[in-house]
Amino acid sequence: MKAFIFAAGAGERLEPITHTRPKVFVPILSKPLIKYHIEYLHKCGIKDITIVISPKHKEYFEKHLSNVSFVTQQEDLKGTGAALKSTKFDDEALIIYGDVFIPSEDIICKFLLQKDNAILGVKVENPKEYGVLVTNNEGNLTEIIEKPENPPSNLINGGIYKLSSDIFSYLDKTKVSERGELELTDALTLMAKERTIKVIQYEGFWYDIGRPWNIIDVNKWALDNLEFSKNLGNVEDNVKIKGKAIIEEDVEIKSGTYIEGPVYIGRKSEIGPNSYIRPYTVLTEKVKVGASVEIKESVIMEGSKVPHLSYVGDSVIAEDVNLGAGTLIANLRFDEKDVKVNIKGKRVSSGRKKLGAFIGGHVRTGINVTILPGIKIGAYARIYPGAVVNRDVGYGEFFKA
């Protein structure tokens, strides 16, 4: 059977992290999300894997993935239906949304046993943010309602399908939605009127990585579910490691450092001296955390540096960022209300009382910079020394107080 992973989305809600990487390359611990999907498909015996990508990301995908095929989605037509139209299969295929995370291959393998068309159904607490599934008494799909104000249930579209090639005839009958997209879910509603689409309900961990703080959440789940500790690094005397910790090869941890798990420290990273790594910290690889630095519940990506006298809390920092000495990221409002973040022009509550900053790739801050809660700093931005960053900073912008 063929499998297709949809990965052509622009990832606008995940900006600024997606300024420099496709959203399916968001890391969970040190591994990009899409590599989990590929590994699961291999474990289920599927080798014929095609990834639907945007033309602008073609070079990035080809550089970072091998042993898979690519097909580009037309730029003039958006949506999951357009993604499927970019593919071709004669019999049946497995289709996965690239931005959802599940912790094992079990549910994917279960789809391969289904004789009928099938869709994954997941129960969530906030169904109005998703496509809600309506089923009949036999547990088969009758309709998908996108983001309803009054959801008929909390069972939503989990982003995995097994479909026959008949779906293409229903796509041909599907009109572009009000959002200006060709929606696969609309085609499935048409198909469900004439053919059986079994809803496979799943009650395990499932996560839609759609907003920047979700990167923290899904890594936090992964750390909570570490089965063991591992220390392959070079640890100097007078270092304390408490709780579960994964410390990969060629890590240097210098004297006076205190590490409180669960944490993940990727290969060739350098910590200390006298640093404090607090629970739920993920350093992907080649990350430098220097003298007298404190990191708490944050994800810091490849090659970024927090060299000295800085604090990073509840934040996501993309690759090759350098924070000047004394950079402080505030993560709690004075009124202790939930931190809000600008998402596609709207102020959205994160649901978190503690939330720091989201910093895109290749950013540089000067010394003694303060960044307020919920701030986004675009890739390649420069922050002037002593600045208090109290608003979002655009891609490549020079911010001066």
TrEMBL record:
Question: What keywords are annotated for this sequence in UniProt?
Answer: Acyltransferase, Multifunctional enzyme, Nucleotidyltransferase, Transferase
The record's section on InterPro entries has: Bifunctiontional_GlmU_arc-type, GlmU-like, GMPPB_C, Hexapep, NTP_transferase_dom, Nucleotide-diphossugar_trans, Sugar-1P_NT/AT, Trimer_LpxA-like_sf
List the GO molecular function terms.
glucosamine-1-phosphate N-acetyltransferase activity; UDP-N-acetylglucosamine diphosphorylase activity
Q: What is this protein called?
A: Bifunctional sugar-1-phosphate nucleotidylyltransferase/acetyltransferase
Pathway assignment reads: Nucleotide-sugar biosynthesis; UDP-N-acetyl-alpha-D-glucosamine biosynthesis; UDP-N-acetyl-alpha-D-glucosamine from N-acetyl-alpha-D-glucosamine 1-phosphate: step 1/1; Nucleotide-sugar biosynthesis; UDP-N-acetyl-alpha-D-glucosamine biosynthesis; N-acetyl-alpha-D-glucosamine 1-phosphate from alpha-D-glucosamine 6-phosphate (route II): step 2/2
Please give the Gene3D superfamilies that the UniProt record associates with this protein: Hexapeptide repeat proteins, Spore Coat Polysaccharide Biosynthesis Protein SpsA, Chain A
Q: Which species expresses this protein natively?
A: Sulfurisphaera javensis
Catalytic activity, as annotated: alpha-D-glucosamine 1-phosphate + acetyl-CoA = N-acetyl-alpha-D-glucosamine 1-phosphate + CoA + H(+); N-acetyl-alpha-D-glucosamine 1-phosphate + UTP + H(+) = UDP-N-acetyl-alpha-D-glucosamine + diphosphate
Which Pfam families does the entry link to? GMPPB_C (PF25087), Hexapep (PF00132), NTP_transferase (PF00483)
Superkingdom? Archaea
Instruction: Give the family this protein belongs to, as stated in its UniProt record.
Output: In the C-terminal section; belongs to the transferase hexapeptide repeat family. In the N-terminal section; belongs to the N-acetylglucosamine-1-phosphate uridyltransferase family.
Per the database record, which ranges form the Mannose-1-phosphate guanyltransferase C-terminal domain?
Answer: 259-342
Q: Which residue range or ranges hold the Nucleotidyl transferase domain? A: 2-220
